[in-house]
Sequence to fold (235 residues):
Amino acid sequence: MTSITIPTPAGDIVGHLAIPVTPGPWPAVVVVHQVYGLDDDIRHIADKFAGDGYLAFAPDFLASGNRLGCLVSLARAMSSGEGDPVVQLTAIRTWLAARDDCTGKVGITGFCMGGGFAIVMANKGFDASAPNYGQLPKHLDAALAGACPVVASYGGLDRSLRGAAGTLEKALTNAGVAHDVKEYPTSGHSFMNQDLGPSWMKPIQKLAGLNVAYVDTDAEDAWQRILAMFATALH
Fold:
């Protein structure tokens, strides 16, 4: 497990690369972080994918530059499916697929902001997508046209994304995309993340009605659903 830098047409991206200990080659997964950047929790998730036989890379989109400016750029790209972050994620997918220790199959998963990116990247060359409490893009139907299989998870107590699971499932059905969308009625936002963010985020989370809390049973169920979808789409 190591920190590496990947060159892209929109600028270099530093991140955490997790490599399985079993003999390769392996399919790969891009793990996209929340709004406050790459942290130990996301590194742990990438390592967990490696433990299940996936080459995993977690980029840090907030590693350099003005943090506020980066967040504005990320938010716009997540909503529109265009911009430098989308170019960078596409380049990361290409870099992983071209590695000798990769099978060429690459999935994407993300949490909160990263979940939104997992949705908008689902028709941009990835072979499977796992958005977790991801914001729906501005043009959802266009984002899902020709999309790869999607496994998505939401918390029923997350007031900031009320109705998102149903809307996403309907759009995926209309687009003819293989999918598994589940809303966990007693979980809120970030129920799969054990690190719930820096202290300065707590008032913002409360104000937004996120009901942030890690829920081990629902987190494990969502994880197993992701692995099941990836086992079919990436192997």
About this structure: The longest strand covers residues 102-111. Helices lie at 40-51, 67-80, 84-98, 113-120, 140-144, 164-175, 202-207, 216-233. The chain is about 40% helix and 20% strand. The mean pLDDT is 92.
